[in-house]
Each structure stands twice: as structure tokens, then as C-alpha cells.
Write a structure and sequence with these properties.
Layout lengths: L1 E7 L7 H8 L5 E4 L8 E5 L2 E5 L11 E4 L4 E3 H13 L7 E4 L3 E3 L1 H14 L11 H9 L12 H18 L11 H15 L3 E2 L1 H10 L4 E4 L25 H4 L8 E9 L1 E4 L11 H10 L12 E6 H10 L4 E5 L10 E9 L2 E2 L7 H4 L3 E7 L4 H7 L6 H14 L2 E6 L7 E3 L3
Parallel strand pairs: 1-10, 1-11, 2-5, 2-10, 5-7, 6-8, 7-9, 11-14, 13-15, 14-18
Antiparallel strand pairs: 3-4, 12-13, 15-16, 15-17, 18-19
């Protein structure tokens, strides 16, 4: 029995959905293990574009797909996603949801907005999806879990308590929006009926998977540098995208060998607030953003664009115990006048030996760049015939040597067919 864990090595938006879709052809089960509907995994197949927020990317190939207990589930967003997929001819009959996953409600979104407004200039730049407040309830031991939906009476009691808590404790806030308890509960109960048959108990589900020796593919959301423990705190998400969280976020014990596949762009992006040393000049950034369609799949927000940051990437490769890397979006940097790679940070003329331990230090660093000869789209097409141009080969060899990890796949376009397996 073997497993693969696909994890983002940057600030998210690396193209994980495309890689999971590609790898899922050879597995039995695809597992999403953390995050919520703030994620956006995009898969393009011919003229069809699928954008997934909660459902694992393996669903497109009809694979058994599991939303683990580490995920926070917004029923409204989940059902919208199911409806969209079914309208595009994708069946969700193989979708399962852990009874241990926490439910995200409208009041979590309202609290998210209230918190952001009160922080002012210190705002994190969240998606406003309620993810953070839902995880707060989880760790405050006041949350409501998917398994609670099974007992209707108990579920209503718990939801009433949380709605009353919100209405009574946040009513003095400037941007407070009251929730109509009766109407809201009626709406949620309608949604409840539609997912009851998808709910599974994680221990029983995991036991069956291990018994049948299924091949598993774990799918993270966001990226390493947004990890709540090891990312650029406090400008992070509220969960652990790192590879080690695959087991706690799914309830599937590590009774098997596994490989970690890190995904990174050949440049960098980040959305929201926080320091970003590799950021491109304005003209280059605008060009790359438009060409690369660097706008959030969930919110449509502009992503900040920068060059490949090897300091941050090496840090992420180590944390995840990364076995190999899939590097995406080589087509976006094609035919440019120049390509840069960030190779080091300096503060007061002294080179740092490690990734900064806090955002205050990260915001002070002076980036050190190395220039590389750009490649053309024609050279990328030659890669499909295993012909490496000098410029691409030099770039790949430099990155691999810097990271100490092999790049095994690159992408040269947005479609499923644009993934090339390489051996440098």
C-alpha cells in the first residue's frame, strides 16, 4: 500500500489541482485534508474549466473522494459546487465526508468580516469565507461537526446555541448583521438532507481503505508559507497545509509508505497582505498577472507576482520532507526579456543563513537576484519531445542544485495535456 501527498510549496495557487488531477489517474482514493472553501483548485480539460473549492480534485476522474476531518465544510458552498459539477456532467456519487469535519456557518463569515474591519491596517487580507472563526470554534471546543447532522434534534439545539452566542455577543460591533434563527435553521436543515448519505465515520472508513490496500493521494489546500505554524505568521491561513497534516487531517493512520510531491510555480505569487521580497517591478508584475491569469479562483482578487524565491522554497522543501517537485507555469515566463531568481536575503549587508523567523525580519530583507536567459514557447514545445534548450536546462539544473530535490514534472499550459514528465 502506497500514498502520495501533494502539497503547495509557496503561498498557495501553485497549480495543485492540475497536478492532483494528473496523478489521480493511478490511485483509488483522493483525500482533501485541511482548509475550506477559500481554496480554489482549477482543472482545464479541453473547453471545460472546473474550479473546485472543497471537493477533492480526483472527483473529475470519478475517483473515490474524501473530505477529511481537518477541513471546515461550508454546506452552502459545497452544494453549489456539487450542483455545478453535476451540470457539467461530473458525478459526485463517490464523494464522502468525514463525520469529524467541522461545519462553517454564516455567522463565521460575519465574524470574519468584523475581525478584519477592526484590525484596520493590521488586517490579514482574508477571503472573508469564515475559515478562521470556524477553526477558532473547533479549538475552543464549541464547534459543530458534520456528524452532528445525523441527530437532527441535537443538531438544532447546538446550532441555536451558536446563533444566540453570535447575536448576543457581536451586536455591538459596527458591521454586525443579525441572523434570523428560525429562518436560518430552516435553510440549513434543507441542505442537511442533501449530504446525509455522504457522511462516514473516519475510523471505519480508514480501516476499510487499509484493509483493501488502496492507493491514496492526499491533496492540500493553500501552501506551506501560509501554514499557521510555519508560514509567514500572522499573514497565514488557519490550518496546516504541510504534508505531515495529511494524516491528522484525514484520520487515515500512516500504515503505508508515502511520497511527498511539492508543487511550485517557476515564479512566485501571494494574495492578501504580508511581506513579499521577490515581488517584481510594477510593469513586469502587471504583464505576468494578466498573462498568467493571476486572480484568485475563489475571490477574483489580484495576486501579487514575484520571481522564484529559492530561500523560501528551500525552507518549504525541507519542512514537507519533499521527495520531488512539479514546477508549473513555464509558459507564463516564455519570451520575456529577462528572468530572475531570488537566491538570498541580506539585512544590513549580512546574508541570512535561513528563512526569517518572523514577518518583521522578512519585511526588512534585501533580495539578491540572479539573472537567467529567457526561453521561448517553441523551446517548451520541444520539451514534449525530450529536447532541452540551453536556457531551460540551465534554469532547471540551478534550481535543483539549490534545493537538493529533483524537478520531475513541469507544466507548459493550463490544460491536463500540458504536463510534461522530465528527467534532468
Amino acid at each position: 500500500m502506497k500514498a502520495k501527498i501533494v502539497v503547495g510549496l509557496q503561498w498557495g495557487d501553485e497549480g495543485k489541482g492540475k497536478i492532483v488531477d494528473y496523478l489521480s489517474k493511478d490511485v483509488d482514493l483522493v483525500v482533501r485534508y485541511q482548509g475550506g472553501a477559500n481554496a480554489g483548485h482549477t482543472i482545464v480539460i479541453g473547453s471545460k474549466k472546473y474550479v473546485l473549492h472543497l471537493i477533492p480534485s480526483g472527483i473529475i476522474r470519478g475517483k473515490l473522494s474524501y473530505i477529511g476531518n481537518g477541513v471546515v465544510v461550508d454546506l452552502e458552498e459545497l452544494l453549489k459546487e456539487i450542483e455545478t459539477l453535476e451540470s457539467m456532467g461530473v458525478s459526485v456519487k463517490n464523494l464522502k465526508i468525514s463525520s469529524g469535519a467541522h461545519l462553517l456557518f454564516q455567522f463565521h463569515k460575519y465574524i470574519d468580516m468584523i475581525n478584519e474591519n477592526e484590525k484596520g491596517k493590521r488586517a490579514i487580507g482574508t477571503t472573508g469565507s469564515g475559515i478562521g472563526p470556524c477553526y477558532v470554534d473547533k479549538y475552543n471546543r464549541t464547534g459543530i461537526r458534520v456528524g452532528d447532522l445525523i441527530d437532527k434534534t441535537l443538531f438544532i439545539q447546538k446550532l441555536k446555541e451558536r446563533i444566540n452566542f453570535y447575536n448576543n455577543n457581536f451586536k455591538s460591533k459596527e458591521s454586525f448583521i443579525r441572523i434570523d434563527e428560525k429562518r436560518y435553521i430552516e435553510t440549513i436543515l434543507e441542505k442537511r438532507e442533501k449530504i446525509l448519505k455522504m457522511i462516514v465515520y473516519p475510523d471505519l472508513f480508514a480501516t476499510e481503505i487499509i484493509k483493501r490496500k488502496m492507493k491514496i493521494l492526499f491533496e492540500s489546500a493553500q501552501g506551506t508559507l501560509l501554514d499557521v505554524d510555519f508560514g509567514t505568521y500572522p499573514f497565514v491561513t488557519s490550518s496546516n497545509p504541510l504534508s505531515y497534516a495529511a494524516f491528522t487531517g484525514s484520520g487515515i493512520p500512516q500504515y503505508f509508505d508515502y511520497k511527498v510531491i511539492g508543487v511550485a510555480k517557476c515564479y512566485s505569487t501571494r494574495v492578501g497582505n504580508g511581506p513579499f521580497p521577490a515581488r517584481m517591478d510594477e510593469d513586469t508584475e502587471n504583464f505576468v498577472r494578466e498573462k498568467g491569469k493571476e486572480f484568485g479562483a475563489t475571490t477574483g482578487r489580484k495576486r501579487n507576482c514575484g520571481w522564484l524565491d529559492l530561500v523560501a522554497l528551500k525552507y518549504a522543501v525541507f519542512l514537507n520532507r519533499t521527495d520531488e517537485i512539479a514546477m508549473t507555469k513555464f509558459d507564463i515566463l516564455s519570451d520575456m526579456k529577462k528572468i530572475k531568481v531570488l537566491t538570498g536575503y541580506e539585512i544590513d549587508g549580512k546574508r541570512l543563513e535561513n528563512f526569517p523567523r518572523n514577518v518583521e525580519q522578512l519585511s526588512m530583507v534585501k533580495p539578491i537576484f540572479v539573472d537567467f536567459e529567457p526561453w521561448s514557447m517553441r523551446e517548451l514545445e520541444d520539451l514534449k519531445r525530450k529536447k532541452f534548450s540551453k536556457s531551460i536546462l540551465k534554469f532547471l539544473e540551478f534550481v535543483q542544485k539549490s534545493l537538493g530535490t529533483n524537478i520531475t514534472h513541469i507544466t507548459t499550459g493550463s490544460e491536463r495535456k500540458d504536463i510534461i514528465k522530465i528527467n534532468v
